[in-house]
Specification:
Helices cover about 45% and strands about 20% of the residues. With about 170 residues, it is an alpha/beta fold. The protein has a five-stranded mixed β-sheet, sandwiched between helices. Helix 3 packs parallel to helix 4 and helix 5 crosses helix 6. Keywords: RNA-binding. Pfam families: rve (PF00665). GO terms for molecular function: RNA binding.
């Protein structure tokens, strides 16, 4: 089945039009394997999207144990409080509190509100270096997949990407 899927993708005009040359592979630092699902999560933003249903960014949250991901449409200008609300609504409600989080050093993620929230809830943040996939390669790789998937399915004007985001999460 894998070979037939590969053959189909190689013949698919949309897939070929959206195929990018791969950058040199960077040696990834192996992350410690968490003891159970949603013990450790990593998260990042993908920005640069046109407005779609009021959103222009995606919050990507990946479970380090199962590699399961949540792709949450949001705004690139989301506040620390807004980000905390997204986590409570989309992650903590479903999976409970993570013991550890891995994130880059973006200003939203290092805000005073989030630090206070983490401390109050007993969550231990572990910061990676922004744009350094060797420290948070798992989430960065998923980000590449999301961008490729959405390029393959969105309308020509890219205004409907938020509609396709739940299907990308399933894929």
């Amino acid at each position: 089945m894998k070979s037939s899927a590969k053959e189909w993708v190689e013949c698919c005009p949309v897939c070929q039009a959206n195929r990018r040359a791969h950058a040199p592979v960077i040696a990834l630092k192996p992350l410690e394997v968490p003891p159970f699902p949603f013990h450790t999560i990593s998260y990042d933003f993908i920005t640069g999207f046109p407005k779609s249903q009021g959103h222009d960014a995606i919050l990507v949250v990946i479970d380090s144990f199962s590699k399961f991901g949540h792709f949450i449409p949001t705004s690139k200008k989301v506040t620390a409080k807004g980000l905390a609300d997204l986590f409570i609504t989309h992650i903590w409600k479903l999976h409970g509190l993570p013991v550890k989080t891995i994130l880059d050093r973006g200003t939203t993620f290092t805000g005073k509100f989030l630090r206070a929230l983490y401390e109050r809830l007993g969550v231990k943040p572990a910061f990676s270096s922004a744009y350094h996939p060797e420290s948070d390669g798992q989430t960065e790789r998923v980000n590449q997949f999301i961008e490729f998937y959405l390029q393959s399915y969105v309308a020509a004007d890219h205004s409907d990407w938020a509609t396709w985001l739940p299907l990308a999460e399933y894929a």
